[in-house]
Automatic annotation (TrEMBL):
GO terms for molecular function: nucleotide binding; oxidoreductase activity. Residues 133-274 form the GFO/IDH/MocA-like oxidoreductase domain. It comes from the Bacteria. Keywords: Oxidoreductase. Residues 6-125 form the Gfo/Idh/MocA-like oxidoreductase N-terminal domain. This is Gfo/Idh/MocA family oxidoreductase. The keyword Oxidoreductase applies. It comes from Saccharopolyspora rhizosphaerae.
């Protein structure tokens, strides 16, 4: 028998939606049948480029298509839950951009919908698929560093507030600032590297020192302050992990620091340590990776090599692979992304209440 063809739709025609479209288009046995977006010219151009039969202004029209097998959601955070739940209730698999939702409550509703429908709910955590993070994961999971007990991870920007005054900086629409936006990537790849320990409690702080003053916007974007700045521009969190481990997270959209963005991770283990620095963040296809170990009482540090990751292409490829493997559907119901959302919720609660908060 020939492999089935999966008919997919994409909601959202911005940068993220275009990444999903390109990734689907590169795969055999995938047909892009529908695209939805409110930018008419972009929608028409993408429809022509990818041969989509249906072009819609509203997501409701797209998820109502009876021939749809799966949908990608690449729109503002406040729309993730309604679109995903509507699609899942119609028996359509879902791949959503991060974060899963604005908060854990919406995330749980999405997971429950996926379980009830017996369909896949996945989230595009593409940074865990970076080649350097995968290589470091092989080293840690292979036991080379012993038991990890302390780790630090961050994504820091100097001037990286996306569109001041847009939905990104509206608390009701976004759910939060950099902690919810890029910090969830840091949380995801850090917990992946540490072997998915349970987060027991968090102590967090958030600050909004630059954004409300229209400082720190991306240099190619003009300030749109009429919409206000209602979220944080910097967050830091101390996470206590099951088994006694510790993880410290930092993330900023705007801070007076080195002008070059940074994604990093460092870990101390009982038999060794490691550091990864991607100077330039997403522009650095492969970061600087070092492993620190002793051998027979002598320093035996080394620098592993890693291949570039494939970002959204790898995410979409894995999503389609799971769609073709029904026995894996139950294990891909959004639960992992929900655990991330619950930790982020606890961080915001801790910052607001100025105390350590247990994670449900």
């Amino acid at each position: 028998m020939s492999d089935p063809t999966f008919r997919v739709g994409v909601v959202g025609v911005g940068w993220a939606g275009q990444q999903h479209l390109a990734a689907y288009d590169a795969l055999p046995h995938v047909e892009i049948v529908a695209i939805a977006g409110q930018e008419a010219d972009t929608l028409a151009a993408l429809g022509e480029k990818y041969g989509a039969q249906h072009l819609f202004e509203s997501w409701e029209q797209l998820v109502d298509l009876p021939e749809l097998d799966a949908v990608s959601i690449a729109v503002p955070n406040f729309l993730h839950a309604p679109i995903a739940i509507a699609a899942l209730e119609r028996g359509v698999h879902v791949l959503s951009e991060k974060p899963l939702a604005r908060n854990g409550t919406e995330g749980r509703q999405m997971v429950e919908a996926a379980r009830s429908a017996g369909r896949v709910l996945d989230v595009a955590f593409n940074h865990r698929l970076r080649g350097d993070i995968q290589k470091l994961g092989e080293i840690i999971h292979g036991g080379e560093l012993g038991r990890p007990y302390y780790a630090k991870a961050s994504w820091m920007r100097r001037r990286g507030i996306p569109k001041i005054g847009s939905w990104f900086t509206n608390r009701e629409m976004a759910g939060g600032g950099p902690l919810a936006d890029i910090g969830v990537h840091v949380l995801d790849y850090a917990l992946f590297l540490l072997g998915e320990p349970k987060v027991e409690s968090v102590s967090a702080v958030t600050y909004a020192e630059l954004g409300p003053r229209d400082i720190g916007g991306m240099k190619w974007e003009t300030a749109q302050s009429k919409g206000g700045f209602e979220v944080e521009d910097f967050a830091s969190a101390f996470l206590r992990l099951e088994g006694g481990g510790t993880l410290v997270l930092e993330t900023s959209w705007a801070a007076f620091r080195n002008p070059t963005d940074l994604i990093d991770f460092s870990v101390l283990g009982t038999e060794g340590g490691a550091e990864l620095k991607a100077i330039g963040a997403t522009k650095a296809q492969v970061g600087d990776l070092h492993v620190y170990r002793d051998h027979d009482g002598e320093i035996a540090d080394y620098q592993p090599t890693a291949e570039p990751g494939r970002a959204h292409a790898a995410v979409v490829e894995n999503f389609v692979r799971v769609l073709g493997t029904p026995e894996e559907w139950a294990g891909n119901d959004g639960s992992l992304a929900l655990r991330r959302a619950e930790v982020i919720d606890a961080c915001y609660r801790s910052a607001a209440e100025k105390r350590e908060v247990a994670v449900a």
